[in-house]
Amino acid sequence: MATGFYNVPKAVNEPVKSYAPGSPERKLLLDTYKKMYNEKVDIPFYIGGKEFRTGNTVDINPPHDHKHCVGQYHTADKEHIELAVKKAAEARVKWAATSWEHRAAIFLKAAELLAGPFRYKMNAATMIAQSKNVFQAEIDAACELIDFLRFNVEFMTEIYSNQPQSSPGIWNRMEYRPLEGFVYAITPFNFTAIAGNLPAAPALMGNVIIWKPARSQVYSAQVIMELFKAAGLPDGVINMVTGNSSTITDVLLNSPDFSGVHFTGSTPVFNSFWETIGKNMNTYKTYPRIVGETGGKDFIWAHPSSNAQEVATAISRGAFEYQGQKCSAASRAYMPASLWPAIKEAVIKDVKSFKMGSPEDTSNFINAVIDNRAFKKLSGYLDQAKKDADAEIIVGGGYDDSVGYFIEPTVIVTTNPKYDTMCTELFGPIITIYVYEDEKWQESLDLVDETGEFALTGAIFSGDRYVIDIATNKLENAAGNFYINDKPTGAVVGQQPFGGARGSGTNDKAGSVWNLLRWVSNRTIKETFVPPTDYRYPFLKESTIETVEKEVETAIEKLKEFSKDLKDKFKK
Ligand SMILES: NC(=O)c1ccc[n+]([C@@H]2O[C@H](COP(=O)([O-])OP(=O)(O)OC[C@H]3O[C@@H](n4cnc5c(N)ncnc54)[C@H](O)[C@@H]3O)[C@@H](O)[C@H]2O)c1
Ligand SMILES: N[C@@H](CCC=O)C(=O)O
């Protein structure tokens, strides 16, 4: 078989298209959106490459127009999940033995297809069912997913090329085997890129996957399955199942073949997985890998030396883009009293200028929150803030679900740094601000660090390098992604590897070598070219002692002969 040490194409970030008025991409995307909006999609689940339609369906309603229906998806029963385990095991035989360049080629092809013919369908599905505006859909469903696919291939080759030293006469090698079983990928509603990456990353490393997308992301999940099929991913490598989360999880976490979980979502759900896995430990053939990126309560902190307009813009974008439904979104802020009036004025001006509505109208900066549950939860917090003496809503606070689940972008100012909305992840367009006395800026950093259970993203603003140094050190454990003079959202694959610790996850950094390393089980191979044939250490070998004794005896004999010769000579 012909082979070689192949270099993969250098990964570069996918350029973000502008969708400016009159641009061809704008027309293509909006035409696709309208077409898909007025059709009825019928989404199956996928096991072993086959499409399953059970007739037990769930409607797909755009969050910004919830009475409208764009189609339905079919849900699996327990037997289907058991079948998925079987089919994944069957697919594993060939996939795990497929050489890496073929796995790489499939995912590189998927990246190119998404950059080209799949781009508008993927973005439109994300706009329709997840209520993202054009820009938010583009940076997520197109660019970030393309980046994950391209960069992971490069990271894979970095891992494979990491090999041990070899002493003379031997050759040490490191094999990076896929895990012995299947990986369960569970994905959140808010990022199409995460939904694609969580099954794709372990699959790239040779694993087989059972993937369960979030119910409100199933529309773009289907497009991801179509993309992988078009790229040539063999049947059964990624099986996408939809249905009751508990039923699916119960079957998968009870299977002896369960070898890892790749989760992104809320902290309580991940904690429940960890508990179940712990209880089931004796069931599994191998210790499962547990990888989870979870919730956040991300902060913006500003020092009196910072620029008020820069801080205000970071709040307006960091807290409200995609309705604050990014795990990275700023949802608590600490502002110095001296700068607060200027920051407040600028933020209120921004928020009042935001347009809210359907993503089809590209002038809308804000769209709807994901579903009725989120709407009820968020409106409940707004009602509570209106009643609480230690909270004041300075802009926003309204909500309306008559057409879509619309929550007005809201800024709450509190006098209590431990006020509920300073600590709890709300996952919506609400930020709470605590104003501190300028001279207490060091104490305010302690507050940032000590408030809440999370440590995902955080941003500090200052024009003073000594302050930046102190804050960076004090907040060492407060965020896995830390920003200096920038908003805490918008991490880019290959540039800011993403993930947090504490209650925010296992911090394995999506789209990095550290994440991919979790999906391989190394085998060390030592090959000896000329194996020894005698067990004894050289200095103890009988043959050696005998040789030395013989050499000594010979030397003595020679000396005797020499002295005899000498004596004879003297006698003569
Ligand atoms: N840290 C990160 O990188 C990151 C990225 C995106 C989202 N998130 C987090 O995700 C959350 C928002 O997403 P979400 O609302 O989809 O999260 P979620 O926890 O409700 O759902 C995540 C996934 O788990 C499934 N699920 C829910 N309950 C389950 C149960 N009892 N058993 C089994 N599966 C269950 C869901 O169906 C979904 O597929 C936020 O907390 C956000 O911070 C984190
Ligand atoms: N890359 C995104 C990830 C957000 C997760 O929900 C960001 O950094 O904003």
TrEMBL record:
CDD domains: ALDH_F4-17_P5CDH. PROSITE patterns: ALDEHYDE_DEHYDR_CYS. The keyword Nucleotide-binding does not apply. Residues 56-520 form the Aldehyde dehydrogenase domain. Pathway: Amino-acid degradation; L-proline degradation into L-glutamate; L-glutamate from L-proline: step 2/2. Pfam families: Aldedh. Gene3D superfamilies: Aldehyde Dehydrogenase, Chain A, domain 1 (3.40.605.10), Aldehyde Dehydrogenase, Chain A, domain 2 (3.40.309.10). It is an enzyme of class 1 (oxidoreductase). Keywords: NAD, Oxidoreductase, Proline metabolism. Its EC number is 1.2.1.88. It catalyses: L-glutamate 5-semialdehyde + NAD(+) + H2O = L-glutamate + NADH + 2 H(+). GO terms for biological process: L-proline catabolic process to L-glutamate. GO terms for cellular component: cytoplasmic side of plasma membrane. InterPro entries: Ald_DH/histidinol_DH (IPR016161), Ald_DH_C (IPR016163), Ald_DH_CS_CYS (IPR016160), Ald_DH_N (IPR016162), Aldehyde_DH_dom (IPR015590), P5CDH/ALDH4A1 (IPR005931), Proline_metab_enzyme (IPR050485). One of its GO terms (molecular function) is proline dehydrogenase activity. Belongs to the aldehyde dehydrogenase family. PANTHER family: DELTA-1-PYRROLINE-5-CARBOXYLATE DEHYDROGENASE 1, ISOFORM A-RELATED (PTHR42862), DELTA-1-PYRROLINE-5-CARBOXYLATE DEHYDROGENASE 2, ISOFORM A-RELATED (PTHR42862:SF1). This is L-glutamate gamma-semialdehyde dehydrogenase. It comes from Lutibacter oceani. The lineage of its organism: Bacteria, Pseudomonadati, Bacteroidota, Flavobacteriia, Flavobacteriales.
